[in-house]
Amino acid sequence: MTADAPILEVRNLTIALPSGGDRTTAVKNVSFTVGRGEILCLVGESGSGKSVIAQSVMGLLPKSLPVKGGQILLQGEDITHAPLFRLRELRATRMSMIFQEPMTALNPVMTCGDQIDEVLAQHTQLSPAERRKKVLDIVREVLLPDPERMVASYPHQLSGGQRQRIMIAMALVLDPVLLIADEPTTALDVTTQAQILKLVLDLQKRHGAGVLFITHDFGVVAEVAQRVAVLRLGDMVEVGDKHDVLQRPQHDYTRMLIGAVPTLHLKQRANDASAPVVLRVKGLEKTYLDKGWFGPHRSVHAAKDVNLEIRRGQTLGIVGESGSGKSTVARCVVRLIDPSGGQVVLDPDEADGGDDIAMMPAGQLRPLRKRVQIVFQDPYRSLNPRRTVAQAMVEGPVNYGLSHAEAMVRAKQLLQLVRMDSSALDRYPHQFSGGQRQRICIARALMMEPELLIADEAVSALDVSVQAQVLQLFEEIRGRLNLAMLFITHDLRVASQVCDHLAVMSKGQVVEYGPAHQVFGAPQHEYTRALFAAAPGRGFEFAA
After folding, report:
1. Fewest CB within 10 angstroms: 341, 386, 443, 450, which?
2. What phi-psi label fits residue 76: left (phi over 0), alpha (psi between -120 and 50 degrees) or beta?
């Protein structure tokens, strides 16, 4: 094999889908190469075949997705139909994979150190002491603090970014020539994402590996790629140099994807400063008491002296890193968790002063529940898999006295509002895509005719084109129904598309608060400026 030969060569790869689907192949006649020291980004919407290709290279495809044609060559060796024992020899030694969700990929009952050590024990003849040293060395290399503590910790004891670093350490501990990264930063906030991307780039240069990087985030593509391949419904529609594909796209589908990329350019909106206040949060506190088995109890301030206000027809965005307190505030407002102090007042401008639900006894909350509704990040976990869409949507209104017939009429109207056919009412959640399930969750929340709609990271798991559609949907609903909205996100690009006002949170506190144009135009706090600096793809000129 020559020095300039590709590390990975995929030739006319075709992978079949089970019968009865909307198409016969997951991928069809796909060809591309990854060279030594090169990063190729594979992009496309959900269902385009990106992860199927990654799994086929690693030999992880289920039997229901057989390879029907083509070849996969790793350093010239055809591994398309390699036996399992050979694939096991190659995994971690010559090819490794970083998975999208480390909490799912890591074993919850093994320490992180034992999981890295397992790779070494399976593939090397090193002694336990030598393996221990190598484990600590790779943990230091991925810049994890206190390596001794990290290797002794279980996955649930680490943050999302730390877990992803453990996954990277496992993938690189034996210096593979090919690294496959399958959406490794999708669920991470922007600052952690920036750290992980820099880490992958640094380690890739240091180890000289070829990288197949799978993502739907074009900001990430602009940061890391050298070449880009675009997939649509299993077909490779475009492949080429990063600047050619992102700035001079040839295919309509590529242009559509790039056009859907959110930017940091704020959309101008008309605001009615005299509109009535729907929600006023004053001095909100949430403190957790960490009652360990040993040692003193420790107080954790998840939210501290939070003050917010939302008027009818306006959207307030709360942005910040994971653990900043965004979702804690949202859950306190909905009273899914009980605040430790402060006020959460609905309709404070009413003659009676409104309803303070912060410390209200649970028994008195029921009449107020319908006035505040929430859309969560993961629609699949939000919907009962054993109940049809109709059953999920009518349950709330029927519980509050609406007849079943009237609730069904409202459900059909709201499905139409979120651009779904009424035939969806008879189907189950697993029969829809992620974007469709999120539309159903939005419609279900609107069934209660709320005054305040809370969206808690409601678009972070969606690919770029579906994300753009759902953001546009939120805008239309806000305008048509004159709702107040509380929009929780870690992505400033998303916040710029929908928010009138912005609150930036760090370590449980609001560090900057004001009109969105003011925060975006001249951020005052250094933390806010750090968030802007970490936004992937900032400064890159995409095709108009």
Report:
1. 386
2. left
Which whole-number Å values give the CA distances from 177 to 38, 85, 92, 117, 211, in the listed order? 11, 19, 9, 20, 9
Query: CB–CB of 476/496 below 8 Å?
Result: no
- Can you tell me the distance from the alpha carbon of 285 to that of 344, in angstroms, rounded to the nearest whole number? 10
The pTM (predicted TM-score) of the whole model is 0.78
Phi and psi (nearest 5°) for 268? -80, 135
The pLDDT tens digits for 181-217 are 988 877 677 777 888 888 888 888 888 889 999 988 8
Contact predicate 72/79, CB 8 Å? yes
Torsion of CA 199, 204, 205, 208, to 10 degrees: 160
User: Which DSSP string do the residues of 459-475 spell out, in sequence order?
Assistant: TTTS-HHHHHHHHHHHH
Cβ distance 227 to 30 under 8 Å?
Answer: no
Taking each helix axis from N to C terminus, what angle separates 160-172 and 190-207, rounded to the nearest 10 degrees? 10
Tell me what pLDDT residue 290 has: 63
Q: What DSSP character marks residue 91?
A: B
> Within a 10 A sphere around the Cβ of 8, how many other Cβ atoms?
24
Q: Which CATH architecture has domain 8-107+159-259?
A: 3-Layer(aba) Sandwich (3.40)
Which CATH code of 3.40.50.300, 3.40.1280.10, 3.30.420.10, 3.40.50.2300 fits the domain covering 277-371+450-534? 3.40.50.300
Q: Where are the domains of the chain?
A: 8-107+159-259, 277-371+450-534
DSSP assignment letter at 188: S
Do residues 169 and 184 make contact, with C-beta atoms less than 8 angstroms apart? no
For residue 377, the one-letter residue type is: Q
